[in-house]
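Data deposition worksheet. Section B asks for the primary sequence of the deposited chain exactly as it was used as input, without tags or linkers unless they were present during the calculation. Section C holds the resulting structure in token form. Section D is free text for depositor observations; keep each observation to a single sentence. Incomplete worksheets are returned to the depositor.
Section A, Depositor: J.P.
Section B:
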Amino acid sequence: MLYDVYEMHRSMLAGASAMADLGAQWLNNPANPFGYGAMSPVAASALEVFAHASAPRGKPEWDIETVEIDGRQLAVKIVNEAAKPFGQLKHFVKKGVTGQPRLLIVAPMSGHFATLLRDTVARMLPGHDVWITDWRDAKMVPLADGHFDLDSYIDYIIGFLEHIGPGAHMLAVCQPSVPCYATAALMSADDHPAKPRTLTMMGGPIDTREAPTAVNTLSTQRPHAWFEQNVIATVPLYYPGGGRKVYPGFLQLAGFLSMNLGNHLISHWEMFKHLVEGDGDSAEATKEFYEEYRSVADMAAEFYLQTVDVVFQRHLLPDGQFTHRERLVDPAAITDIGLLAIEGERDDISGIGQTRAALKISEKLLAAKKKYHLAKGVGHYGIFHGSKWRSQIAPVVEQWIARHEG
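Section C:
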């Protein structure tokens, strides 16, 4: 019922958005004499903001076609590899470039598509052979393809590292810090030839008892059954994954918007002012952010519920009780993988200390193999996106990889 109500509402807004967009174009048309009235720019801008905010969105494109290396523009070909039901491995192939450090970027499965990390990929691409996990929208996965939980997530990462081959590095952004750390511990215990040389964790919930945020508090204030009863929905039958239980992406988006409603309203107000004043560049930047931010994907219910239980409620990893398919994950097994923990000073999703906890629980890892970086004045999204990511944080990651390469 929840999903059906949402779809009906979305269909209604889609029509309203299309009408608002036509109205804005009509008022902005130089051939329209009514477009020269005093209030016409205001009305056109208001219609354009509404049209953008209410428009339906699908999976965004990567829009990475070239990369500049040593002053040359080289073509980038995105190749899909190691395809599995709930995700595939994308490889950003640069024509004529070989021998660079191989980097697997593990995108979060948290309601958005991997393209949320477009800026992360673009910044690391000139100096690295970049691969990324491309998780599928769960509503598009047929029931016949089985289920997907936290154990499956770890299996996928191990499989992707095996596909890339020995000597790769791994970068986990937010949510995947926990399964990536577990992967590193398991592969280290097995002395797996494809275990990563380094693992960089950025804004990840390794131990959410450290500086808990509103997101963490929500998870602990309600029993596990509450989440199963209130935020899990069934995918309608007109989708390929019809009948699958999911945590809908639109619920995740609504939660994040409500947490920072004031900031989002201000952003749209600024966008409106830029359009009225004719500052198209600034308005376009806001549009681009919300195009990505509002493009959401569903998560398999079993993955979401297990993550809430294991990571946010029982804290099994930092307490040494995390298991993968009934096998205990031992942090002490990590003895030769370089661990880099990065946190944002203003992160309101993963508080300060939550990611750094990974260094603390790695008791057998030498201090020289551990590094911590606190990004000053940076919020959660600023850790992997924007000017501070590109100029201040990415160089730290690059130096850490270079230090452990070869």
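Section D:
Residues 2-56+249-293 form one domain.
Confidence is low (pLDDT under 50) at residues 12-18, 20-24, 34-55, 256-278.
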